[in-house]
Predict the structure of FAD-dependent monooxygenase.
Amino acid sequence: MASQRSIAIVGAGLGGLVCARILQLRNIPVVIYEREPTPTSRQQGGSLDMHAESGTKALEMAQLLDEFKKVARYEDQNIRIVGIDGTIHFADEELAEGQVGDRPEVDRTLLRQMFLDSLKPGTVKWNHGVSKVIQENNKATLHFLDSALEPVVYDFVVGADGTWSRVRPTLSSVVPEYAGITYIDIFLADVKKNYPDLAAFVKGGMAMVLGDNKGILAQKNGNDVVRVYAAFRKPLAWLDEVGLNSLVEGGKHAEARELLLKQFEGWCPEATGYLKVPCLSMDVRPLYQFKNRHTWDTNPHVSLVGDAAHVTVPNGEGANSAMLNGLDLANAIAENISANEESWLKAIKGFEVEMQRCGWEPDDELTLDAFISDGDAAARAAANMRKLMAMAMAAAGGASH
Ligand SMILES: Cc1cc2nc3c(=O)[nH]c(=O)nc-3n(C[C@H](O)[C@H](O)[C@H](O)COP(=O)(O)OP(=O)(O)OC[C@H]3O[C@@H](n4cnc5c(N)ncnc54)[C@H](O)[C@@H]3O)c2cc1C
């Protein structure tokens, strides 16, 4: 192929945005088609910690590390694991000097906006939800949910459209499955100002109160916000049976909080305190994942990054690996943009094989599955956390010799 391939990305989440930014830095034209009507039409979620080998690396390669440092919260990286009776089983105070500090937190909205601001004007076509991708005549055609929008044709399409990707069916028939755990996602505002005890409990980061196949996970965000996940290991039907879905959808937050409090009867007041105060927003989030490693035959016209390729339950890696995928795929594209078919396919396959390997390495002992479990989940989680930290210390020590 002599001329440059034309490239489109579906989805302006972190995976798609990193991919677009790197392509533009490498002078490759790119358009992102995004379903949301505007950059601010949806609440983007809570705090993310950036990992050196993935999220931070993508920020650096995107030449946005200095911008990131202006909004990052290096002081909010602490974790506490607490039993339902209030016993603290693990606290960051146990960590040796130097163990805290390389996973800075950032509010997802700020991070996403930083990438949006870095793109050339008009790169993102808002309100362009893609309904399907048809591959024919050595091209990929995007069709839109809004039938008034004309289909558009590209040489290569990156599916960065998350868990329920409309691009993925071009490559595989796999669909995510309910992971057996649902989060009730609650945002509390002005926490330090109005509820100093709740702010103190979450300290500089995250407090996870675990047990009895449930959890209250409180996460400090910027701007005096605390995000709380009330987590349940329950079948999907339970959400309707107890009326949670209809209460939350109907905006009846006070009644929903009453219902939640009943579920956590007998839990320590530090944890239930988060459910007793009015909230800014509340959402029901059933968690979905691929049960197995997701692979497909490489296609010269379509690939995937992030959750579209390897969604798992939240494990602190999802956004980070979506960013790394965006970086790696953009580099593979840029280096082969005018290459012949064989070299192009080899480059895309090389990216996919590595992504599929890395995107599926669940750590048995520190997964959400292990956290939201029966018996004394907190004590087990704390023991596993210590074991992993010791292994990380040993590895770091070994590497320096
Ligand atoms: C409750 C919860 C907490 C989490 N916490 C963390 C954490 O602390 N750290 C971490 O690293 N990860 C976390 N994750 C995982 C992380 O959110 C995802 O892995 C990450 O957002 C994936 O990025 P992405 O770009 O692949 O997809 P997304 O962020 O889902 O972005 C997809 C984009 O595509 C758009 N889109 C969707 N469909 C279409 C369509 N048909 N047409 C056009 N556009 C479309 C969407 O509007 C969206 O903008 C968490 C996940 C959940 C559910």
